[in-house]
Amino acid sequence: MSPGAGEAGPPRAEAHSPSYFSLLRGSPGLREAPVDFCIPCNPYFPTPELFGLLQQNLTTILKYYPSDAGAITAELGSLLGLQPQTLVMGNGSTELITWIDHLLIRESVAVPVPTFGRWTDQPLETGKRVDMYRLPEERGFALDTEDLVRFIRARGSRAAVICNPSNPDGGYLRRAQVIDLLDRLTDLDLVVVDESFIDFVDEEHSPSVADEAALRPNVVVLKSLGKNFGLHGIRFGYMVANPALAGTVRRMLPKWNLNSFAEAVVFLLKEHTRAYQESLRLVAADRRSMLQQLSALPGLKVYPSQGNFLLVRLPDGKDGVHLRDHLLSSYNLHVRECGNKLGSSSRFLRFAVRPRQDVVRLADGLRAYLYAGSGRVTAAITSAAVVPPSPPSAPYREEPAYLEKPAYREEPAYREKPAYREEPVYRAETYATPAPAVTEAPVYRMEPARRETPYPEDPFVVGGDDPRHRRLDPLDLSTRWTFGEDTSPFRALGDGRAEHTRGYDHRS
């Protein structure tokens, strides 16, 4: 029997997880917004400063038409160092996937699985043959490019898609490996490299092959700005291809397919590139810490990742659907169970990378489910009670994907000073209350000499006292917003730039 009106029910098994809004609407009994480990989103960007600029211009953004896509694309090209004729901006990367399938994929496409569902579902919906290349679980879902080429030749596939980093496991091919693969597949109609999570890679300095796509006759690189910038709600992404391929897709898109929020963010990015780069460094540090914490749980297999998410495999006899529902109902955590992904099963879950205080809460929920009634629970709690931080600048070390050991090892210098020994232990009855703030050093010092608090109040966010860890609350009706009468475009940018150039203190 399905839940009645006003009753909370578990997420349905669909091709995609339920949206954050539908989860809130379907769970009126929640005392607070769930902590979202499901959707991979940059938790450190936009900064409170950038959110403040968007808030100050909210009247203008909502009231007036955006510029046409050509003007916004030209600004993005200037920011990226790419020619506008090689760029196509879409209302989310899914819009571009749809048109790539309709216009550029003719008969068949080879796709490694498991992967992002639209790369298999979209061509199947339009009657294409999808040749699914199964990534071997026993090798940690690592993609062997030589074997993929042999598979494509044997099947006679006319197009190919790879995600780099791969979704949901976060596996990564170095730039030289991807270029070698493109060289081997020059006879195909199309090769798509989905780089939606490429900005989170820290294994090498310049991992993208977008510059190659702009010159090659059969290559498209896809990017997702919403994932990188922590702004999924704006719905904007772009593709890079040679002018002929890009023009084929661009001509099919509406002239005003981008909204004013997307335009506002694109035109503000130049002044916030340093803050964006710092947000990527913080996510990489959180990823190392999170992999270390989850790997300490006995029986839980955690796969090394270069994305902003981690794939885990549950021990034998444990089911991801039950765990997903347990974490939501008992710990108010929203996670991604991967049973509906082709090439995967319900033994796998994907966790978005989040700050350490949220991961402690996740680890508590995992222990309660995995070791309930077992003597292993005491050992698991003891082994994960103190987690020293990884060095912020420690290089990424890749180990063979099939090894059980985590890729990141503690350095001796950090074993002597466990930094988080005094962090409070989360208990089920206290999860409605946000975690206590870290008071040693506020992350954002807006005006420390003149304010009692290190940053101004921001009606866009709620949560703990650390603004980097706050999250959007779409149903918060407690704050009343007021706006000035001056609605000239982006007036906030002209009100004294010194006011908007305060530095950040990321020492904590």
Provide a short characterization of the protein structure:
This protein is 32% helix and 11% strand. It has helices at residues 20-25, 48-56, 58-63, 69-80, 93-104, 118-125, 145-155, 175-184, 210-213, 225-229, 243-250, 260-268, 273-295, 320-331, 356-370, 376-384, 412-415, and strands at 35-36, 87-90, 108-113, 129-134, 159-163, 190-194, 219-224, 237-240, 301-302, 309-313, 333-334, 336-337, 348-352, 461-462, 471-472.
Features:
4-stranded antiparallel sheet, disordered C terminus, alpha/beta, 15 strands, single chain, 5-stranded mixed sheet, disordered N terminus, 508 residues
> End-to-end distance, in Å?
49 Å
Give me the number of helical elements: 17
Percent helix, as a range, is: 25-40%
- Order of strands, main sheet, comes to 2-8-7-6-5
Main pleated-sheet profile: 5 strands, mixed
Shape: globular
Number of strands: 15
What Rg, in angstroms, do the CA atoms define?
Answer: 23 Å
Which regions contain 5 or more consecutive residues with pLDDT less than 50?
A: 1-15, 377-508
Describe this structure in words.
The structure is a single chain. The model is unreliable at 1-15 and 377-508 (pLDDT under 50). It contains 17 helices and 15 strands. By secondary structure, the chain is of the alpha/beta class.
Provide the fold topology.
Elements: H1 20-25, E1 35-36, H2 48-56, H3 58-63, H4 69-80, E2 87-90, H5 93-104, E3 108-113, H6 118-125, E4 129-134, H7 145-155, E5 159-163, H8 175-184, E6 190-194, H9 210-213, E7 219-224, H10 225-229, E8 237-240, H11 243-250, H12 260-268, H13 273-295, E9 301-302, E10 309-313, H14 320-331, E11 333-334, E12 336-337, E13 348-352, H15 356-370, H16 376-384, H17 412-415, E14 461-462, E15 471-472
Parallel strand pairs: 1-11, 3-4, 5-6, 6-7
Antiparallel strand pairs: 2-8, 7-8, 9-10, 10-13, 12-13, 14-15
